[in-house]
């Protein structure tokens, strides 16, 4: 392959945000806000769990805004948030056998699998 062909391939790289990335960002932002307000109201306890949830919500909110700007660090934070959300929901489902946790965990898994696609990664800076 010649050097000109390689340059053309790089120039032909897609730009802009995919609709799925925008939808995942919106969902994760709403989920982050709901969990932050729940932590502030004491739903996760009063000790270190409250501050741990607030710290994770802050990281995820920063990641969402980074992903909306198509930054690789924002993508990495949201990807980690999706994986953590998936594993947490599946763990709670395993303990409680409550169906909504399984559904939420599978949605987070679908979001994770969408974000690791080549088409999504190629659009990041």
What does this structure look like?
The chain has one domain. Helix 2 packs antiparallel against helix 3, helix 3 crosses helix 4 and helix 4 runs antiparallel to helix 5 (99-115). The chain starts with a helix and ends with a helix. The chain is elongated. It has 6 helices and no strands. The model has no long low-confidence stretch (mean pLDDT 89). The protein is mostly helical.
Summarize the structure.
The chain crosses the membrane at residues 21-39, 51-68, 75-92, 98-116. By secondary structure, the chain is mostly helical.
Structural class: mainly alpha
Oligomer state equals single chain
Strand count: 0
H-E order: HHHHHH
User: What value does the Rg take, in angstroms?
Assistant: 18 Å
Note the beta-strand portion: under 5%
Cα shape = elongated
Please describe the biggest sheet, giving its number of strands, its sense, and whether it closes into a barrel: none
Transmembrane segments: 21-39, 51-68, 75-92, 98-116
Keywords: Membrane, Transmembrane, Transmembrane helix
Keywords:
125 residues; mainly alpha; 78% helix; 0% strand; elongated; transmembrane helix; transmembrane; membrane
